[in-house]
Amino acid sequence: EATYDLLRKHDTALCLAETDDFAPPDILTAGFVYVRLRREEYSPRELSAWRKRFDTWTNGGVDVYAYVKHEDAGKGPKYARQLLGNLQ
To answer: What pTM, to 2 d.p., does this model score?
Structure first.
């Protein structure tokens, strides 16, 4: 909690980094959120769940900065397009 309090005090976002071995806490510490989606594979359902979180945050006035895993296979751009697919 001390770390989260310090981040909040300085309006600094905790990096919410998801990996194959780690799910990030659902904790916001700033007026924006910084997300790194770093799993090897994402299903459409998993991306949809992230998109719902992003929509909840943006609807609450929180800016979302999300980065998708970059790797040799080139899946990151595909995942990013899927995340952005429903934007109006």
So the answer is: 0.86
Based on its alpha-carbon atoms, the radius of gyration of the chain, rounded to whole angstroms, reads: 14
d(CA 22, CA 73): 21
Contacts for 34-38: CB closer than 8 Å, 24+ residues apart: 34/65, 35/64, 35/65, 35/66, 35/67, 36/66, 36/67, 36/69, 37/66, 37/67, 37/68, 37/69, 37/79, 38/69
**Joined tokens for residue 56:** 């909840």
- The tens digit of pLDDT for each residue in 20-70 reads 999 999 999 999 999 999 998 999 999 999 999 999 999 999 999 999 987
